[in-house]
Design brief:
CATH class of the largest domain: Alpha Beta
Low-confidence stretches: none
CATH architecture of the largest domain: 3-Layer(aba) Sandwich
Distance between the termini: 9 Å
Mean pLDDT: 93
Length: 221
């Protein structure tokens, strides 16, 4: 069993100024000399999707996409490596990761972040990246949306469950055929997940860790 964890709002909370919003604008500025017309809503989206919406909003050609993505990743490492911009762990989730390991299952990632952004965010929050199977993790730097990300995961993960904090994660779980464990730690309430058919909604890891383990155990076949 592979437990596929979303990152932002599920494992870590981005408490840096504006949640690192300025990194997107700075990347565009340095690559093109332009200011973004607007920064799109990032909630539940993948990095590729957000950067492409910014590029299109600025009226820039597709040839800018590669340099924009590369500079964005470089700036992200610089940003989250600063102690003042460090992420914080979601309360109780470290114990959930440990419980997965102790049950003999595998922790992996399915996140809209690029691989390098996921790595630096986890480290900034005090997580050991070695807790995760990076060969069975999936990142948003090459997929257009979360559904495409999940379909890629389906081809490599034959038995898994997806844990996430947004409707986008619910869409991904449904698209990939993964049971969905919703968490409210990213700010969405339990009722908002109903339409995605979650097998469990976790509102407090400390109170519901046993229920989580029991739910995943029942899914093992």
């Amino acid at each position: 069993m592979i437990v596929l964890w979303d990152l932002d709002g599920t494992l870590v909370l981005d408490d840096s100024p504006q949640g690192g919003l300025g990194v997107f604008a700075q990347a565009l500025r340095e690559v093109s000399g332009q200011e973004p017309v607007s920064i799109p809503d990032r909630h539940g989206k993948v990095d590729w999707q957000i950067l492409d919406e910014i590029r299109q909003g600025a009226g820039l050609p597709t040839s800018v996409a590669g340099p924009l993505t590369r500079r964005f990743k470089e700036l992200s490492v610089e940003w989250y490596s600063e102690p003042a911009n460090a992420c914080t762990p979601v309360p109780g989730v470290a114990e959930a990761l440990r419980a997965v390991h102790e049950a003999g299952w595998v922790n992996a990632l399915i996140t809209g972040n690029s691989k390098v952004r996921a790595h630096v965010k986890l480290q900034s929050a005090g997580f050991d990246p070695g807790l995760f199977d990076w060969d069975h993790s999936f990142f948003g730097e090459i997929y257009p949306d979360r559904a495409a990300l999940a379909r890629a995961a389906t081809r490599a993960v034959h038995q898994g469950v997806l844990v996430g904090d947004t409707g986008g994660d619910g869409v991904a779980a449904n698209a990939g055929g993964f049971p969905f464990v919703a968490v409210t730690t990213g700010g969405n309430d339990a009722a908002s997940f109903t339409k995605y058919g979650p097998v469990l909604v976790v509102e407090d890891w400390n109170a519901q860790l046993d229920a989580f383990v029991a739910t995943v155990t029942a899914l093992v076949r």
